[in-house]
Amino acid sequence: MTNPSDEKLSLPLVNAAIFSSSYKSIAPSVQSIGLRTNGLRYRSLTFAQEQRTAEEFLLNTRVHRHDREMARSVEHYFVDQSVAMLSLLGQESTAGLRTIKLSPGIPLSIALGSAITQRRSCRSYTGDPLDFDELSALLHSVGQVTGIAKVHLLQGGEASLRFRSVPSGGGLYPVDLYWVALNVAGLNPAVYKYLPVRDELVEVGDAAMLKGLLRCFSVPEELLSIGRAAGIFVMVGQPWRSMRKYGGRGTRFMLMEVGAMSEHLHLAAVALGLGSVDCSSYYDDEMDEVLGFDGLYQMVLHTVVLGTPA
């Protein structure tokens, strides 16, 4: 932590900062105000009937002792049919769709400690194309199948469970990874979905979908040069894939998985000399509509913009 004595801040400014974090004004008539900032909503929680999304989420995703419903839900995933279902994850049909096999990629040889200390959010890019081997390495870092376990079924036979490079609650993998290719050598500008089991990209949207998706971002080009980036990683969640087993707790696991995927991407980008940044500045409903998601059972959870740092 930075020593306060090292900061070149005036005493009045420090006092003002402490005051703004220690006290809040009371606004009993907040309900009559048409335009309410998030700060005003926070200051008026005692009086206003505002939605308390964060608190409600945390309360509704708690696990309680002697919860038989939760126990039975988890137990169900150890029967043969559930094990067989898990063995089929990531093996959806691609009939009629264009698929592209990934290359082995580029080895990520940087030391972990160095990657962690060098990681910075990069918002300005040169417009240089991304090499396909670099893209393969990035996709492998965030979702490649890295291990297979053979499970003996009670009714005879066995099933194969595939484990990926990021942790996932119960090995359910409710988050799919999409790649919006803007400037990649040898890859058409389009929207692709990564298939970890086959280690392939499948084209799910043409250039028109790509342009529609770019219009969903709310951040100006001056603050984040998406137009000069190599592409955008889009993380798409299916909450009930996890919630069928863990209930509301499964939503926490899904969001943790998104965080792990993002961090793997950033560290791999550092190893490849690339720049990346988390970006949540997009209009959810519009982006879901462009990609064909209902926004409830399947929705965009997060994006990461990547390119050659300027």
Task: Based on the model shown, name its key terms.
NADH Oxidase, 2 domains, seven-stranded antiparallel beta sheet, alpha+beta, two-stranded antiparallel ribbon
Please explain how this structure is put together.
This protein is α+β, with helices and mostly antiparallel strands and 310 residues long. The chain folds into 2 domains: 11-50, no CATH class; 68-307, NADH Oxidase (3-Layer(aba) Sandwich), CATH 3.40.109.10. Helix content is 35%, strand content 19%. The chain is built from 11 helices and 9 strands. It has helices at 11-22, 38-43, 53-60, 68-75, 80-87, 112-118, 132-143, 207-214, 239-246, 249-271, 284-291, and strands at 99-101, 145-152, 158-164, 175-181, 190-195, 200-205, 231-237, 275-279, 299-307. It has a 7-stranded antiparallel sheet, sandwiched between helices. A two-stranded antiparallel ribbon has the order 2-3. A hairpin with a 4-residue loop joins strand 5 (190-195) and strand 6. The protein is globular, with a radius of gyration of 23 Å. The model has no long low-confidence stretch (mean pLDDT 92).
Note the topology.
Elements: H1 11-22, H2 38-43, H3 53-60, H4 68-75, H5 80-87, E1 99-101, H6 112-118, H7 132-143, E2 145-152, E3 158-164, E4 175-181, E5 190-195, E6 200-205, H8 207-214, E7 231-237, H9 239-246, H10 249-271, E8 275-279, H11 284-291, E9 299-307
Helix pairs in contact: 6-10, 7-10, 9-10
